[in-house]
Amino acid sequence: MSHNIAIGVDIGGSHISCAAVDLVTLNIIDNTRTERAVDNKAGADEIIGVWVEAINGAIKNIQAEELRGVGFGMPGPFDYVKGISYIKGVAKYENLYGFDVKKAIAEGLGFSGDFPVRFMNDVSTFAVGESLVGKASAYGRSMSVTLGTGFGSAFIADKIPIVDGPEVPKLGCVYHLPYGDNIADDYFSTRWFIGRYKKETGIELSGVKEFASLADTDPLVMDLFREFGTNLGKFLSPWLRKFRAEIVVVGGNISNAYSHFGNIFEKSLADEGCDCKVSLSELKEDAAFIGAAYLLDNKFWIDIQHALPLM
Predict the structure, then answer these.
(1) Hey, is 233 helix, strand or coil?
(2) Does domain 5-124+286-310 have CATH number 3.30.420.40?
């Protein structure tokens, strides 16, 4: 029996989600989506234990002999080649610092050390998924952004993440670039909305979902959405032009409020001379599953070896 199934894993700040993917059709296999809450301040063994439990939840509904391996979309800093976490200085997963995640996952699943467990940056897996079967699949050059707790981005050319060279910023992403009083991540994320609204009103809202519910009745909320969309277009347009992106795909939790800022964002891009097409992700987290599972396509894995150390 051929090994044509891989588990695609998406690691969030406080949860893990995963699904089994058919590597021939790139379809997610029915009844294999699993999700578990994770205490990101727990010890390494506890975190790995929850991750293994979630992955086993996906494996149980496939034929185990068809499993080719497991692919992770993992936030950094992380050694994506060796599978070792170097996350520190943030309030999540610090106890994994220096931990051999690759070995621990293989052993936790009951496989030998040579069982394929592969890793790539989490936003890159989302972007690859979109380029394979999502909104960017008909285009050679795309950028995907995830708007949420942080500001994620990835540039893709012919299905491959581009992380160096004159067309993209360092690391192949934009969150760290200077913007306003600090960096872009501070302006194009949930905390910008929360911070700005609290500064103006003294009220701290819980997140963008609450902002969206108030958009039709609170003029300040709509002002914030307009400012967000305008600034996002101004910030992204130079990089979209430089990369010659044909499409930008928008995902992440803030994208659920796209109706409140999308037209403004698209107009801002046009005003900046950027004619790049804009699409809202329909796959959402499924794009990350597919992109992560695709790490088990051996040709793709070979093709991205030069990029992994730079992510």
Answers:
(1) helix
(2) yes
State the Cα–Cα distance between residues 187 and 231, nearest whole angstrom. 9
Contacts of 172 (CB under 8 A, 6+ apart): 124, 154, 155, 161, 162, 163, 164, 307, 310, 311
**Residue-wise pLDDT tens digits, 220-239:** 999 999 999 999 999 999 99
From the centroid of its chain, how far is CA 255?
A: 13
Residue 208: exposure state from Cβ atoms within 10 A (0-12, 13-18, ≥19): buried
Checking DSSP bridges between strand 247-251 and strand 277-280, what pairing results, if any?
parallel
Kindly indicate whether the domain formed by 137-282 is annotated with CATH number 3.30.420.40: yes
Looking at the chain, the domain(s) classified CATH 3.30.420.40 span 5-124+286-310, 137-282
- C-alpha 68, offset from chain centre: 23
Q: Please give the helix or strand (H or E) that residue 20 lies within, else none.
A: strand 15-22
194: tokens are 């929360």
Hey, what are 278's tokens? 């804009």
138-147 tens-digit pLDDT: 999 999 999 9
Q: DSSP strand E in 33-169: where?
A: 34-37, 67-74, 78-79, 84-85, 117-121, 141-147, 151-157, 160-161
